[in-house]
Amino acid sequence: MELKNKVAVVTGVSKGLGLEIVKLLLEKGVIVAGWGRTQPHFTHPHFHFFSCDVADESQVDQAYRDTVASLGKDIRILVNNAGFGVAGSLESMSYTTKRLIPAMKAADEGHILNVASIAGLNGVANFAGYVGTKHAVRGISHSLYMELRDFGIKVSTVYPGSIQTHFFDDIPGMEAHEHMMRPEDVAQTVVQTLETHPNYFVVDVECRPLRPKGKK
Ligand SMILES: NC(=O)c1ccc[n+]([C@@H]2O[C@H](COP(=O)([O-])OP(=O)(O)OC[C@H]3O[C@@H](n4cnc5c(N)ncnc54)[C@H](OP(=O)(O)O)[C@@H]3O)[C@@H](O)[C@H]2O)c1
Q1: Quick one: which atom of ligand 1 is closest to the CA of 80?
Q2: What is the pLDDT of residue 87?
Q3: How far is CA 39 from the centre of its chain?
Q4: Total domain count, the chain
Q5: What are the φ/ψ torsions at residue 130 (nearest 5 degrees)?
Q6: Host domain of residue 80
Q7: Domain annotation covers residue 125
């Protein structure tokens, strides 16, 4: 999709991967509605923040109404970045996705990009809940793409390994470090996935740090 002047919703934009995705989309000329609990510390004429806990359906409804009132109904891109963390819930993806599908269908064009994790492909000891949620993201995303492809809507899923973000702040015994991926690199993969030819569709992208423990 040609990205310039399209409207995108990105969830979870205060920091980490979501913030980098927002910045890169803005560089590409996208008009971005950020839906999140906390407002990021930056301003841009094409960035609009809508306060919303994406795990709360009524707040998602309100954010959708406010976004349509400010930016119109023609929202072509949804990046489901927040809400699948250790403390997140899967419902958030359904709430945001179900709100935005009708406008994409009306335009006969849209792209939903779900941020999963390599925990959506493998098992991880002591993370069964998170792993289960991320595996579910994969199954839901694949089913959705089969349902939506005939309406011109792509559904892609990105499965990153460890990223240097605030994700680990609340996980005892784990800390972000320099050998993890940089969030701006994962954001670039997200934007490249969105930027493809209308009849070219990337289903799944797995990305990992090359040397996760540094040079041996
Ligand atoms: N970091 C990794 O190693 C890694 C690896 C694979 C996949 N991922 C995935 O990448 C995505 C982004 O995580 P990150 O690494 O960027 O973590 P992060 O630095 O902790 O950022 C998470 C963002 O999501 C927001 N958020 C969380 N729950 C939310 C909710 N219910 N409603 C609205 N916003 C919410 C947070 O807002 P607040 O500031 O208000 O908390 C924050 O802006 C997540 O889906 C995560 O599972 C991360």
Answers
A1: 45
A2: 47
A3: 16
A4: 1
A5: -60, -45
A6: 7-207
A7: yes
CB within 8 A of 93, min separation 6: which ones? 80, 83, 84, 114, 137, 140
Per-residue model confidence as pLDDT tens digits over 147-199: 999 999 999 999 999 999 999 988 888 899 999 999 999 999 999 999 999 99
Q: Which amino acid is at 103?
A: A
In-domain check, residue 213 = no
Give pLDDT tens digits for 38-81: 999 999 999 999 999 999 999 999 999 999 999 999 999 999 99
Query: How far is ligand 1, taken at its centre, from the CA of residue 17, in Å?
Result: 7
Of 186, 159, 163, 185, nearest to 176 by C-alpha is 163
Instruction: Please state the atom number of ligand 1 nearest to the C-alpha of residue 165.
Output: 19
CB distance 81 to ligand 1 below 6 Å? yes
* CA separation for the pair 171, 191 (Å, rounded): 28
pLDDT in tens, 81-98: 996 555 455 777 889 999
Task: Tell me whether residue 212 is in a domain.
Answer: no
Query: The tokens of 202 are what?
Result: 């990337």
Half-sphere exposure of 44 toward its Cβ, with a 13 Å CA cutoff? 22
CATH code for position 151? 3.40.50.720
Q: Is residue 114 part of a domain?
A: yes
Question: Is the distance from the beta carbon of residue 163 to the nearest atom of ligand 1 less than 6 Å?
Answer: yes
What's the pLDDT score for residue 50?
A: 98
